[in-house]
Amino acid sequence: MSELRQNIVYKEWVIIAKERAKRPHDFIDNSPKLESDKTYDENCPFCPGNEEKFPHIEVDRIEKNSKWILKSVFNKYPALSKDTSFEWFEKDIFRVITGYGIHEVIIESPIHNTTIALMSPKEISSVLLFYKKREREISKNKNIEYVIIFRNHGYKAGASLVHPHSQILALPIIPRDVKQRVEEAFKYYSDHGRCVFCKLIEEEIKNQERIILETDHFVSMVLYAASSPFHSWILPKKHLSRFVDIKDEEIEDLSKHLKNVLLKLYKGLNNPDYNYILRSSPISYGNNKYFHWYITIVPRLTRSAGFELGSGMFINPSIPEEDAKFLREIEV
Ligand SMILES: [Zn+2]
Ligand SMILES: [Zn+2]
To answer: How far apart are CA 311 and CA 44, in angstroms?
Structure first.
C-alpha cells in the first residue's frame, strides 16, 4: 500500500508510492553525463591558464605554492548584482526591488574533471572553509538578508560546465519558502520547548533505519518523508542555526559526510546528477534555538510534473528505508 508521509519539520506531505516503488538499483543513472576525461580543457572558463581568454572578476582566492587552489569569481551572467543601487518601491499594487544582490561562483579545484565525491577529505575541508569565509564576508553587507550556497552537478541539476564549482547567491529579501520553513520550526519550538531538528536527530539515531553515516559531530540520513529517491540530509548533532558559525574543527568531520554520501551515490547510482544546498537561518534571525542548519542532497533521478505543480506535494517512487540500506552497504 502507498503511504502519505509528513516531514516532521516542515509539515510537507509526500506520497511514498510503495505499489509502484522501484528497487534502489533501478535508479542507476544511464542518462548522458556532464563529464570529461581531461584534467585541463583549453575551452573551459575556469581552468588555470585560460584567464585571458575568459576574463572574470575575481573576488577571493586560496593559494598554495603561489598557485590558486580555490577561487571565487563574480558570476559572468549574474542573477543579481552589487553594482545596482538598492532601491525598494511600490508600483501601483506591485512591489519592486532593484536587482541588488551578490552572485559568486566558487571554483572548487584547479583540476577540470574532478568533483567533490572524488576529492580528498582535506580538499573538501578547504572548500567548506572557503564557503564559510565567503558567507561571513557577504553577510556583513547590510542590504543582504539571506545567503544561499548550492551546488549543481550534472545536466538535470542545472549545470552546464564540467569544471567543479558551487554558487553563492545573496538576496536582499528572505524568500517565502525559507521564511515558511523557519516559521514551522519556530512553531514546533513554541509547542514543545525544543528544536524539532534536534528531536529528529535523536529519534533517527535511535531507530537507525534511515541513517547513512554517524560520526562525532554529524549525522547523515535519508529522510522519512523523502520527496524523491535518495533525498538526504546531513545535520550537525549539536544545535546550531547557521553554517557560518560552524567551528573549524567540525569542518573536517563534515567533509567526511559530504564525501561519503556523494561517493556512495557516485558509485552506487553511476554518478547521478544532484543538487546540494546549505540551509541556514536567515541572517537577521541570528543564532536561535529553533532553526538547525543542514545540507540537503537531492539526486535528480525523477522529474516533477503537473501533480507536483498543482499540489506542492511530491510522489516518491522509492522507499526511503531501502534507499538508506542501499547507501549504507556501498563500500567507499
Ligand atoms: Zn576547467
Ligand atoms: Zn537543533
So the answer is: 41
CA distance linking residue 240 with residue 291, whole number of Å = 8
Q: How far apart, in whole angstroms, are the C-alpha atoms of residue 14 and residue 21?
A: 14
The Cα–Cα gap between 306 and 311 comes to: 8
Domain count, the chain: 1
Residue numbers annotated as active site: 165
Task: Find the ligand nearest to 163 CA.
Answer: 1
Q: In the beta sheet, which residues pair with residue 219?
A: 214, 235
Containing domain of residue 13, as a range?
3-329
The number of the ligand nearest the C-alpha atom of 200 reads 2
Cell of 91: 508600483
Report the CATH number that the domain containing residue 10 is assigned in CATH.
3.30.428.10
Handedness of CA 273, 320, 168, 68 (dihedral sign): negative
Distance 129 CA to ligand 2 centre (A): 22
Residue 89 forms beta bridges with which residues?
96
The Cα–Cα gap between 308 and 253 comes to 36
Question: Which ligand has its closest atom nearest to the C-alpha of 288?
Answer: 2
Give ion ligand 1 contacts, CB < 5 A: 41, 44, 46-47, 112, 163
The DSSP letter of residue 46 is T
288 CA distance to ligand 2 centroid (A)? 9
287 phi and psi, to 5 degrees?
Answer: -85, 115
Per-residue pLDDT tens for 101-139?
999 999 999 999 999 999 999 999 999 999 999 999 999
273, 281 contact by CB (below 8 A)? no
Of the candidates 285, 288, 297, 261, the residue with the CA atom closest to the CA atom of residue 196: 288
**Is beta strand 314-316 parallel, antiparallel or unpaired with respect to 13-16?**
parallel
pTM: 0.96
Q: Residue 153: beta bridge partners?
A: 274
- Reading the block at residue 289, the C-alpha cell is 534555538
List pLDDT tens digits, range 163-178: 999 999 999 999 999 9
Q: How far apart are CA 163 and CA 153, in angstroms?
A: 10
Give the closest residue to 196 by CA, choosing from 294, 53, 104, 267: 294
